[in-house]
Amino acid sequence: MNDIPQQDCEPPSGQDLSSIEVVLETSVSDDVVFAKTEITASDFQVISPSTYAFRKTFFPQATDKQWNSWRWQIQNSYTNFRKLSEILDTSSIDDVDFLVKSRKLPLRITPYYASLLYGKPNDYALTKSVVPSKLELKVSPGEEADPLHEESMCPVENLVHRYPDRVLMLSTGFCSVYCRYCTRSHMVLKDKKHYGIKAWERSIEYIRNNPSVRDVIISGGDPLTMPDKHIEFLLSSLRDIPHVEIIRIGTKVPMVMPQRITNKFVKMLKKYHPLYMSIHVTHPDEITPEVTEACKRLADAGIVMGSQTVLLKGVNDHVDTMKELMHRLLKIRVRPYYIYQCDPIPGSSHFRTPVSKGIEIIRGLRGFTSGYAIPHYVIDAPGGGGKVPLLPEYYQGREGNYVMLKNFEGKTFRYYDPAE
Ligand code: SF4
After folding, report:
1. CA distances from 111 to 57, 66, 79, 304 (A)
2. Which domains, and CATH codes, for the chain?
3. Which DSSP helix (H) or strand (E) runs through 166?
4. CA of 173 to the centre of ligand 1 (A)
5. CA distance linking residue 47 with residue 49, whole number of Å
């Protein structure tokens, strides 16, 4: 690594937003970004035994209060190979070749999430989803930086207006953990992306001037990495617009940094109902006591939660894994909502399954478990076509006045349905 400047020897850790209106300041270094009083103010108290043991080994100085503070979790995240190699074998990626050719998606893993990876083999499902791999260097046909062409559907910066009655607000480029298959990786790659009140005000103005918008999705990046007052600014501004009927927040934070879900935070959220939360979930192992507590708090606050899962090869591409995930989600009051085919971002082919795998999974769920446990399997059509649902062939066509149906056991039935 001798001919590479020191600062280039590690993957990017996220965006440096310190010079603009600060949403969340983060940097490559371990600089203090939150005040001590902010870090010790957490009211989250759950630490599962294996995570507690991890903390004792790798963060022996950290107190319960610190560990349970989401700000401490961000401040102490794994953002470079040197630190990550303390808990994982990074020898296959920690080399010059990878670092020079990659420069792609930032590396960032919270200590809490790292505790789930510790002691597991390198091909462990959760490890594969968040730790860089050399397979990312292979760009395959059909892959592009913005496969959904969201940037061409932005009437103002960071606001995607794809469907007639709803918009997607990209509120920040920062995430507490970066998923290696992220559809929006093109956003989080951009340096000095200007997120902040000025940018949000342009989006809010657009929504205010468009009465057809009844549903606003606040996403990113991950909006729950922002401080309460920033999130409240957004929610209160949107709630002030009479034609905005519902607000949704898209986030992975409850799964990767459940400490963010403080009682103070959910008390604030409750003021802005009807509020929905789409939670990005990958694997049943993510449903820990900490996550259970976070989701309990959100559900008790009346927030309707739905799951979003990306179908990933070698991570969750098995009927039993998905069934287990959906069952665990229902137990923590998160309704299974979507399974997405993995979008073709550059260097993602190792994650993509054939479409037939997604259909096989839905076939393996429908009829074999509660209807509530069955999400929609969708492909986000490349080029901005929107979500297209895919189903096994239950409808077999018509025979005269009958519709032919195939049930989950493969048996065929005739349903009388005279042509009008
Ligand atoms: S949390 Fe969401 S936005 Fe952030 S890296 Fe993962 S998929 Fe992308």
Report:
1. 12, 11, 10, 28
2. 6-125 (no CATH), 150-389 (3.20.20.70), 392-420 (no CATH)
3. strand 166-170
4. 9
5. 7
Catalytic, out of 65, 120, 134, 162? 162
Token digits for 255? 């799964």
Give the CA-trace dihedral at 306, 311, 312, 317, to 10 degrees: 110
Q: Kindly state the greatest CA–CA separation across the chain.
A: 78
Q: To test ligand 1's pocket by mutation, which of 184, 190, 311, 348 has the most ligand atoms within 8 angstroms of CB?
A: 184
pLDDT tens-place string over residues 271-321: 999 999 999 999 999 999 999 999 999 999 999 999 999 999 999 999 999
Predicted pLDDT at 4:
41
Q: How far is CA 37 from the centre of its chain?
A: 29
Is 291 in a helix, a strand, or coil?
helix
- The CA distances from residue 316 to 97, 98, 129, 277, 358, in Å, are 29, 26, 10, 22, 11
Active site residue 342: no
Indicate whether 186 pLDDT > 50. Answer: yes
